From TrEMBL:
It comes from the Bacteria. It comes from Luteipulveratus flavus. Residues 50-173 form the RelA/SpoT domain. The chain holds residues 1 to 219 of 263 of the full protein. This is GTP pyrophosphokinase family protein.
């Protein structure tokens, strides 16, 4: 009985650390969002969401990847147990927020996958970063890996539909739908590019440029 309790406590602590990692990253992104809104009068972040992989999801991925079913191996090999998604209006904002976030002193960038520069064959686009953030517990500091996905509204729209279709057809998606999705991905990329251009044109007109407000003294 005691051993089971120990195992349960160890697992609870394991999963909790990932939730704390999500909380840390979400807070950082929300601070940037608030700062931009209130100080620079321009907000590059549309919304922020997060998800903690379920224990079943973690085990399924570990099995798929041939990872041994002990917490140390899972911790080392499965880096997307904690996930945060940052949605921006424009591609330039995606890279801007990525740079600001990953440039923070306590954010350790472990890996970047730029599916915007190199989209996946199905058309998927997003900028992924695996980062480690420190989580301060009562008795130790743990470095928690978090996968942060940065994307535009158009990329997000496409990915959520593709995800639904993929699950509906249980990975056996009819070719016609795959072709349609690929075409929609091209349309979404064109929309991003057109919107970016319009955005630059508007920002190029000083009378429409939001006036940055002076920031107060740094504390
Ligand atoms: P969920 O439900 O979002 O958690 P793998 O995870 O094994 O596919 P890898 O290298 O760990 O491979 O991850 P990668 O390529 O960085 O992608 C991980 C996450 O990105 C996925 O998590 C999705 O959220 C998203 N993603 C990647 N490719 C696609 C795609 O083609 N379509 C959509 N809609 N999303 C994608 P999960 O855990 O698969 O799903």
């Amino acid at each position: 009985m005691g051993e089971f309790r120990e195992l349960r406590d160890e697992f609870t602590r394991f999963m909790l650390c990932y939730q704390f990692g999500i909380d840390e990253v979400t807070t950082k992104i929300k601070i940037l969002q608030q700062e931009f809104t209130h100080i620079h009068a321009y907000n590059p972040i549309e919304h922020v969401s997060s998800r903690l992989k379920t224990p079943e999801g973690v085990l399924a991925k570990a099995q798929r990847r041939g990872v041994s079913p002990d917490l140390e191996s899972v911790r080392a090999e499965i880096t997307d147990i904690a996930g945060v998604r940052v949605t921006c209006a424009f591609v330039s904002d995606v890279y801007r927020v990525f740079d600001l976030f990953t440039g923070q002193q306590d954010v350790q960038l472990m890996l970047t996958k730029d599916y915007i520069a190199s989209p996946k064959p199905n058309g998927y686009r997003s900028l992924h970063a695996i980062v480690q953030v420190p989580v301060f517990l009562s008795d130790e500091t743990v470095l928690v890996p978090v996968e942060v996905q940065f994307r535009t509204i158009a990329m997000d729209f496409w990915a959520s539909l593709e995800h639904k279709i993929y699950y509906k057809y249980e990975t056996q998606v009819p070719q016609q739908l795959l072709d349609g999705l690929h075409e929609a991905a091209t349309t979404a990329a064109r929309l991003d590019s057109d919107m970016e251009q319009l955005h630059h044109e508007i920002r190029g007109h000083p009378e429409q440029e939001p006036v940055p407000q002076a920031a107060g003294p740094t504390v």
